[in-house]
From TrEMBL, chains A, B:
Boundaries of every Creatinase N-terminal domain copy: 49-150
Primary gene name: Xpnpep1
Domain Peptidase M24 C-terminal intervals: 557-619
Gene Ontology MF terms: metal ion binding; metalloaminopeptidase activity
Descriptive protein name: Xaa-Pro aminopeptidase 1
Length: 623, 623
């Protein structure tokens, strides 16, 4: 991977930062956040402005360009990748390390007195605007909205915004009709005494209307906004997608409906003016509910006194708790996914020793096996197929320049997943196709102990996920080891592979309590720069736990693994496991045998079945 | 404990809430917070306004009185106590439970439109004012400062503010002179580009000047403020305490000093006008540093643009990291404290079967033994001496109405500590003087497992204490049990027994990372309402840990128990302990034998020594 040469681009950007065609007064700094106008994590090519200007294309990062500097903030997952992809014009700001300044503090430090800091008001979330503008103002600077995106002005070959056909999901997949979702939403609105709700996140629009799209790779979403009133529904969406008879039928666009369920379809680009009209027409006490992560532009459309902002929207919270149809769908999707991975690992075991399997070949093969499964739609994220030192690049994606050949001498880490019409998967397995060293086994076993500590944890109803994060680290900490990422994220149901409001991370405190029906990942790891990476990831469902006692009648929760892919026993130093941990592995593997074995049998995949049976032999106690 | 009858008092308060002598316009609600003008946790009798109006005298709670309602917010430690002490005029608001509204939400719900909510601006912290006034304003109400404290106007026999003599601490206790502390503070101020620092917390004033007082029971502090400039030192303090030659000498009040170390002594009551004068004289860019928990009144004295507010002050952070002199002092104090408790438990073992020892007698006896130790000053908090069901009242203090007799049939919980001139102690032991039931032993053992899990935890440098909280709960959670309080608090060095900025609790996120030299408590528990309470508490010192590996060269930390008092082995179900846990107990007891044994020997306390040796026999593995 050679870095992108950005000298000319930065020169060009610094020119437009002073060009009166785009800015009323020159801006001394320009912020290029990661997201799009919906604050999406995964974005369409036309929204990859930060990658365009810097070369760094990881999923998280914020660039700031001043007259003298160009700096990039990103987190531990991307330190190595960002360092590889950016040229010497850029300074890497390692978030999470003690001495790394915040963006605001850095700006205050480098800017000349009375500077103007520009940002696209459609891209920056309102909460971030508020925080930054406060710090900047108190240091004598100004955060200013720049209506025309300055990156777009210099991005001559910027791709078009996608506008792909929609998929309708029936009740067997969603469990609840969009009408009932609107009813539930309005009842939440009534509870909080708000008259309007603005849906800005793409997965929330998709979930609410039981529609899916493919405008953004890996995330089955489509560019749209919605504004829900107590008696009106407005959907802002472009293209001829609303001409599709299946979609018209699904949304009952041509039926005679009670007026409060009649969907008014409006152009995507009219959201700001429509919202401004709503804002202008509000009578006292008529509040408008928005996520505090909605864009500054949309938030400003509603006069401050009328805004009701929350970190998590009622849709986000409802979406996280999967109903029976969704849970069953997720189970089915994970069984199919396990079938594909059993095929893959069986194939890899045979092929790797020949020395012809590269990271890209392995990733493509994984996709091939997945695509053979029923209701497969696409991958749920870019496959992390990494061997040896590439495994230490936490969110690595193989490209021709970095593509290594798998061998019997290196650890192989595969983090991959798919979108099926019935569910979303995300699984990481770390394998050795030869003989792992004692040290590699030791590290793998600490990671496994952390994985089990979370997966088998029992905790009271109402516990927030961040309180479980240290369980995943304890075995590593005991030996002075750790990993620089969170332990788990919420997973959507045929939706985004990363979703809120729950998760398992030391980094958040504002996560919502875990509830039965929520689905998160459990993925501790250990990474040694330049050598190897280890991660063990299952997607797990929050379920009620039976306990001996029941303090204050609160009830307890635990996790049930949905992912059912063998954990390579060759990598385990069994002497480091407690009896409880050994039993956990054996019971997990027994379940893989039963459930995935039956499906392999049904699909006539006998060789993969033999591989599964071999890989799930019980661990025996060592003395 | 019979509740305080508050009908007349509340009637009287509601009258003054409308009396133009005290309020410009009537207030529809009046907030009575817990603290004093320094936001102290422990307060002088004259500041116990919330206890006066409600009867509830726990250490934490906020009362709000409206025309129709009187409500009290307090946390899990005090649910039972508050319910006992308050009459039916009061509604108990159980903080931490899901359905309990915040004070702001409750006010918005009960108040008539456009209400005024009054509060003493000297008592309410600025951060709380900000939060409340924002919510109230957005609901159409106003938070208004009421200069004259309305409780004081109806509290006819309010005691006088104390003004007791000061204690000076020399270098052998403090390790650093007050001059060097001022130098270090000014260097922190220079780093942040602030010109003034306002010291509002009583323990911060005491620490900064190496002085102690006894104005507040249990906390060796004195009523004072300080304002530190880059070239000036102003100390606001009343009484003739500054006439004491030892104090004058200590502060070098009569010496010829460089002007920047000359202390200007001013009346306590002049802080507001002096600070207003500072505020009025600021030139641009001259910032004033205050804690965001300083009172609203003092914060408002500085124009907003000139304020620099942080959750933790540089004094709070420096004070938390104990130097070698302080650490050695804390060690000495804990050895003396252990001697006193060995004497006490030996005595209790003989006396309890006679049926003559009440909770109060036991608490007095504990104080008697402690007072025999060198440099004993006073207790560090009200002794929690509780047997049977009283043990479930988490912050119970025995009074004649509740005083139970210790017996061989009930669990006895003693949470006690002292102020010695060389250190502060805080220790809880749970004992049975007869034969505990299997269930009592089971619960005790889960609590012990939690205690050990924290005490023996190894974690990376920079870890915040709240990330360790779940370790203390894991064994309880596994069986469906839990406790409704945090796991640990910072402990001062001959200062407040509760201090920031570190601690171990699921409730905080803004705690500062643990550093070697910090001192916290480790005190998980389990409480069964109406039956018993169990808590095992040691004060522990954060120390560097040796680990097999050292990820990113970060270094690791762990804890060293300073408390060296036997944990009753009779209460332990050894079959529930892992080998590692059993070894921890045995090594801990071995250290108690060696260190405390030697001191008991030195003090000629042979009977207590025999008790110690008996109580610290190693646990033997059960099959």
């Amino acid at each position: 991977m050679s870095p992108k040469i950005t000298t000319e681009l930065l020169k060009h950007l610094r020119q437009v930062m002073k060009n009166p065609r785009y800015v009323q007064e020159p801006v001394q700094a320009y912020i290029v956040p990661s997201g799009d106008a919906h604050q999406s994590e995964y974005i369409a090519p036309c929204d990859c402005r930060r990658a365009f200007i810097s070369g760094f294309d990881g999923s998280a990062g914020t660039a700031i360009v001043t007259e003298q500097h160009a700096a990039m903030w990103t987190d531990g997952r991307y330190f190595l990748q960002a360092a590889h992809q950016m040229d010497s014009n850029w300074t890497l700001m390692k978030m999470g390390l003690k001495d790394t300044p915040t963006q605001e503090d850095w700006l205050v430090n480098v800017l000349p007195e009375g500077s103007r800091v520009g940002v696209d008001p459609f891209i920056i979330p309102a909460d971030q605007w508020k925080r930054m503008s406060k710090v900047l103002r108190s240091a004598g600077h100004d955060l200013v909205p720049v209506k025309e995106n300055l990156i777009d002005t210099i991005w001559t070959d910027c791709p078009q915004r996608p506008c792909k056909p929609l998929i309708t999901l029936d009740l067997s997949y969603t469990g609840v009709t969009w009408r009932d979702k609107i009813v539930a939403l309005r009842s939440k609105m009534a509870e909080r005494k708000v008259m309007w709700f603005v849906v800005t996140a793409l997965d929330e629009v998709a979930w609410l209307f039981n529609l899916r799209g493919s405008d953004v790779e890996y995330n089955p979403v489509f560019f749209a906004y919605a504004v829900i009133g107590m008696n009106t529904i407005r959907l802002f969406i472009d293209g001829d997608r609303m001409m599709d008879p299946a979609v018209r039928e699904h949304l009952q666009l041509d039926s005679t409906l009670e007026p409060e369920f009649k969907i008014q379809v409006l152009p995507y680009g009219s959201i700001l003016s429509e919202l401004q009209a709503v804002g202008a027409g509000l009578s006292p006490k008529e509040k408008v509910w928005l996520s505090d992560k909605a864009s500054y532009a949309l938030t400003e459309a509603i006069p401050k006194a009328y805004r009701y902002l929350t970190p998590y929207t009622p849709i986000c919270i409802a979406k996280a708790v999967k109903n029976a149809a969704e849970t069953e769908g997720m189970r089915r999707a994970h069984i199919k996914d396990a079938v594909a991975l059993c095929e893959l690992f069986n194939w890899l075991e045979k092929e790797v020793p020949k020395g012809t399997v590269t990271e890209i070949v392995a990733a493509d093969k994984a996709e091939e096996f997945r695509s053979q499964q029923k209701d497969f739609v696409e991958l749920s994220f870019a496959t992390i197929s990494s061997t040896g030192p590439n495994g230490a690049i936490i969110h690595y994606k193989p490209v021709p320049e970095t593509n290594r050949t798998l061998s019997v001498n290196e650890i192989y880490l595969l983090d991959s997943g798919a979108q099926y019409k019935d569910g979303t998967t995300d699984v990481t397995r770390t394998m050795h196709f030869g003989t792992p060293s004692a040290y590699e086994k030791e590290c793998f076993t600490y990671v496994l102990k952390g994985h089990i500590a979370v997966s088998a944890a029992i905790f009271p109803n109402g516990t927030k996920g961040h309180l479980l994060d240290s369980f995943a680290r304890s075995a590593l900490w005991d030996c002075g080891l750790d990993y620089l990422h969170g332990t788990g994220h919420g997973v959507g149901s045929f939706l985004n592979v990363h979703e809120g409001p729950c998760g398992i991370s030391y980094k958040t405190f504002a996560d919502e309590p875990l509830e039965a029906g929520m689905i998160v990942s459990d993925e501790p790891g250990y990474y040694e720069d330049g050598s190897f990476g280890i991660r063990i990831e299952n997607v797990v469902l929050v379920i009620p736990a039976e306990t001996k006692y029941n303090f204050k009648n609160r009830g307890s929760l635990t996790f049930e693994p949905l992912t059912l892919v063998p954990i390579q026993t060759k990598m385990i130093d069994v002497s480091l496991l407690t009896e409880k941990e050994r039993n956990w592995v054996n019971e997990y593997h027994q379940k893989c045998r039963e459930v995935v074995g039956a499906e392999l049998e049904r699909q006539g995949r006998h060789e993969a079945l033999r591989w599964l049976l071999r890989e799930t032999e019980p661990l025996v106690r060592v003395q």
